Every structure is written in structure tokens, then in C-alpha cells.
Amino acid sequence: EKAVNLKKDLAEMQEWMTQAEEEYLEKDFEYKSPEELENAVEEMKRAKEDVLQKEVRVKILKDNIKMLAAKVPSSGQDLATELNVVLENYQLLCNRIRGKCHTLEEVWSCWIELLQYLDLETAWLNNLEERVQMTGNLPDKLDAVNDALESLESVLRHPADNRTQIRELGQTLIDGGILDDIISEKLEAFNARYEELSHLAVSRQIALEQQLQTMRETDHMLQVLQESLGDLDRQLTSYLTDRIDAFQMPQEAQ
């Protein structure tokens, strides 16, 4: 009777494993929204816990069959053969569910990481847009133009590492058919805004550099002229002080 019960337990365990495999491993999943992906991750975590909890039942079955084989070798031998099959299938099921759970967790982590990088770069783009707008109405002063140029250049020196991560993470998920529509839309919007603002910022940078150069040249010319006028003023003052008649001076002094 004990052998019959153990045989029944083995059959039930095998049936449960077949159902678990069909439910968790053979279904075709399409992750078209973050909610679907997150639900799949949580489901696989529960599946992993459920399968691992059966380890206790498997161990009890193994111990009982060993005890029976020790007492009744003839009955125990057949059960031991069935047990080995169940043990092998159970281990395979555990490994496959662990693997799928790990894969889905990695995919979810990849999605969250992509969102974080997009947030960082969007904040940078907002800052860049603000700096560009600030260059629109500058006072006609050299210091103001110089400060605006330095401020814009400091933002433009932003490293490209984050954009590289966005491209690689997005492509990895899209290649896997995961959230591909949503990610493609996000990347397209981000890249379009990045290109537009980058070109606008570089154009403003070039315009400010040219404006600054012109202002510096004008300042230099005014300085030279001012120095020349100062020299002339001092020379004429000395003539007046010495009461020298203008007609006695060179033509330029007259």
C-alpha cells in the first residue's frame, strides 16, 4: 500500500511539473507595455518561489522511497527509477524557471535604467534650452556677451556617455521585441529634440563668438583712438601753456 501511495505521489509531482512548465515556460509573452513587463516579472518571481517550495516535497518523496527500497527491494527499485526521472525533471524545471526569472529581472532593470538615463539627458536638454534662450536679449556689453558664451559652452561640454547608454539600452530591448513601440517613440522624440537644440546651441555659440570678436576689435580701436587723442590733447595743451602761436607750428598742430 505504501508503494502504491508513493507511486501516486510521484505521478502527481510529475503532473504538477508538466502544468508548471506549460504555464510558466511555454506561453508566448509579448511585452508591449511596462505594466505587462512588470506583471511578467512578478509572476516569474512567484513561479520561482512556488517551484522551490516543492523541494521539501521532493526530498520527502526521495527519503520515503529510499526507506521502502531498503525494506522491500523489489518495490523500491521500480519507484527509484521513477524517482530519478522526477528528480531530473524537477531540477531541469528549477533551472529553467530560475533562468527565465533572472532574464526578466534583467530586462526590467534595463528598462528602468533606460528611463533614468532619459530623465538625466532630458534635464540636460532643458538646461541647454534655457541657456540658449538667455542669449537672445543680451545687453551690448563685452562682459555680458562673454559670460553668456562661457555659460553656453559649459553646458555644451556635457559628455556623450549617457546618450551612448540610451542608444545601447534601447537597442537591446528593441532587438528583444520588448516595449519596442514605446521605446522607439521615446528615442525618436529624444533624438529629434537633441539634434534641434544642439544645432541651435552651436549656432548661437558661433554667433556669440563672432559678436565677442567684433566687440573686442571695436574696443581695441576705441582704445587706440582714445590714446591718440590723449597724446594730441597733451601736445596742444603744452603749446597753449608755452603761448606758442599756431602759425609757428607744423600743419598737423594747426
Supply the key terms:
254 residues, mainly alpha, Methane Monooxygenase Hydroxylase, Chain G, domain 1, 6 helices, 85% helix, rod-shaped, Spectrin_repeat, Spectrin/alpha-actinin, coiled coil, UTRO protein
Account of the protein in words:
The protein is mainly α and 254 residues long. It has a single domain, classed as Methane Monooxygenase Hydroxylase, Chain G, domain 1 (Up-down Bundle). The protein has helices spanning 2-24, 34-71, 73-134, 142-156, 161-175, 180-241. The longest helix has 62 residues, at 73-134. The mean pLDDT is 88.
Question: Helix tally?
Answer: 6
Task: Give the helix proportion (percent range).
Answer: over 70%
Count of β-strands = 0
Percent of residues in beta strands: under 5%
Instruction: Name the CATH class.
Output: Mainly Alpha
Distance, first to last CA: 138 Å
Task: Report the major sheet.
Answer: none
- Cα-atom radius of gyration: 40 Å
Counted up, domains total 1
Helix-strand sequence:
HHHHHH
Give the second-level CATH assignment, the architecture: Up-down Bundle
Low-confidence stretches: none
Q: Could you write a compact summary of the structure shown?
A:
This protein is an all-alpha fold and 254 residues long. It contains six helices and no strands. It has helices at residues 2-24, 34-71, 73-134, 142-156, 161-175, 180-241.
